[in-house]
Amino acid sequence: MQVKFIERKMLAQHVWEYCFTPASQIRYVPGQYAQFSFPSTAATATALQEKPYRTFTLSSHPDDNSVRFLTRLDPPLSHYKNLLAALQPGDLMRMSEPLGDVVLPRLATTPLVFVAQGIALASYLSMLTECAAAKKAHAITLIWARQREDDPLAQCIPNNLPLLQRVDFHYPVSVGASTVLPHIQASSLIYLSGSQTFVETLGDDLESSGVSRSRLIYDYYEGYPEL
Questions:
Q1: Is the confidence at residue 48, as pLDDT, over 60?
Q2: What CATH code is assigned to 112-221?
Q3: Any residues with CB less than 8 A from the CB of 7 and at least 6 apart, and which?
Q4: What distance in Å separates the CA atoms of residue 188 and residue 172, rounded to the nearest whole number?
Q5: Which end of the chain is more exposed for a tag (fewer CB within 10 A), N or C?
């Protein structure tokens, strides 16, 4: 599907929100992702010959008129992110059909533990918006580890979630199984979002501590040593 670039907003140092208008209505579930690619030209084909698209979790809500995602533009930029930084209002991109199973459970009373590393907070924004809008009864613990320059991203978290508990950490303090375990209830689902190393290491540690793999939901960001 074709989407038209509307604007970008700086949310924190080097972190930008990109906003697009789709050519037609897009159906997706909060928490899903999509692939965004540039129109095929000789210039983009040369610059992006290794991988012509990038994958972003949709931080927008399905009821919104626009689609949005967050990304970090921290120099030196890749060829793809140089093209992102050069986008002008009205420019076109291609967006794939949204996919992914990092979504809310059907049972609205299931306790949720959301663990985010840095900008991977974006994985949960649409789900948190859905919980606030639909007044879902999930008790949510958001464990968010980040560098201090990412603190302004907290503005993206809905403030009308009475059952939301935030647990914040700043680097170099790290989040491990001992941090997460006290917040897990008998029926909790635990979502892990961050770099592949962060997610897989924490997931392995939680399993070693007795948490069933069936209760862990992984969402890792490829190509990032840390977020």
A1: no
A2: 3.40.50.80
A3: 19, 89
A4: 27
A5: N
**Contact (Cβ atoms closer than 8 angstroms) between residue 209 and residue 177:** yes
Q: Does residue 206 sit in helix, strand or coil?
A: helix
pTM exceeding 0.70: yes
Report the 10 Å Cβ neighbour count for 174.
12
The string of pLDDT tens digits covering residues 2-14 is: 999 999 999 999 9
Which pLDDT score, from 0 to 100, does residue 137 have?
87
Q: State the architecture of 2-95 in CATH terms.
A: Beta Barrel (2.40)
Binning the chain into helix, strand and coil, the percentages to the nearest 5 are 25, 30, 40
The residue written with tokens 């670039």 in the block is: 5
**What are 100's two structure tokens?**
């992914």
Q: Report residue 8 CA to chain centroid gap.
A: 17
Alpha carbon distance 191, 183 (integer Å)? 12
